[in-house]
Specification:
By secondary structure, this protein is an alpha/beta fold. 32% of the residues lie in helices and 31% in strands. It has 6 helices and 13 strands. The longest helix has 14 residues. 32% of the residues are buried.
């Protein structure tokens, strides 16, 4: 890293001020290409830390782009095959993805798990895992489908990162209501959120605010994590109250 570079100094200062990021425990390596593209590499504590780091870096003046090589640190390592098997089950069992064809990449070969041939098909998803990083390719019929598949990937134990490259066909205009609707769906599906109806979701400029009541701190943290897992969410404000 070019220690004296003013752009890198500004980025590092922004990261040090962010509450979700702990550079002392999880140092992030920063480098700058000749055309002022920032390379960020290393393990971070959470999805929130990863997303905030990328957002803060991209907002720094004179940074022309960000190359994301940040991964979420794991408490327990799992083999890629084990991650892929769990992901395959999660995608196959998801009610809202029932009409999607599903394929997985195993040992360099594409294996068809489910194929939907009729005109009612709502997607064709190809899932792969390498070094704990899940990649989702193919297409789905809506942004909600894309976001749901991405969250299911993040939920799989051993997942270090998700590259959600699913294309939405036909193209759909994204907006705050779509984000809120997708998160409400995810909270309803999450077995760790027993009473999702008590959580209110508001989104403004891709910043999600959670309000309402949950029974435990673990549920509060989990609801926030679900929000961070959503594609395109930039910030989460967790105002959930803990009580009974």
């Amino acid at each position: 890293m070019q220690n004296g570079n003013p752009i890198l100094k500004t980025v590092r200062a922004a990261l040090e001020r962010e509450p979700h990021i702990n550079l002392h425990r999880w140092p992030v390596h920063l480098d700058l290409t000749d055309d002022s593209v920032l390379v960020m590499e290393g393990d971070v504590e959470s999805i929130a830390a990863k997303k905030r780091a990328l957002e803060l870096a991209a907002a720094v003046a004179d940074v022309r782009g960000v190359i994301d090589r940040l991964h979420v640190a794991l408490a327990e390592h799992k083999a890629d095959g084990e991650i892929l098997d769990a992901l395959e089950t999660a995608l196959f069992d998801a009610r809202d993805l029932k009409n999607c064809s599903l394929r997985v990449l195993k040992k360099g070969e594409t294996v068809t798990v489910q194929e939907i041939l009729d005109d009612d098909a709502s997607g064709d998803i190809l899932a792969a895992v390498k070094d704990g990083v899940v990649t989702l390719d193919g297409w789905v019929i809506s942004l909600s489908h894309k976001r749901l598949a991405g969250v299911l990937a993040w939920w799989v134990p051993g997942c270090r990162d998700v590259v959600d490259a699913l294309e939405v066909l036909p193209p759909e205009q994204d907006n705050d209501d779509e984000v809120s609707d997708a998160l409400s769906l995810v909270l309803e599906m999450d077995p760790m959120i027993p009473h999702p109806e008590q959580i209110r979701v508001h989104t403004h400029d891709y910043v999600v605010t959670l309000e309402g009541l949950v029974a435990t701190q673990a549920e509060k943290d989990r609801a926030e994590q679900d929000a961070w897992c959503l594609f395109a969410v930039d910030q989460v404000i967790n105002q959930l109250a803990v009580g009974r």
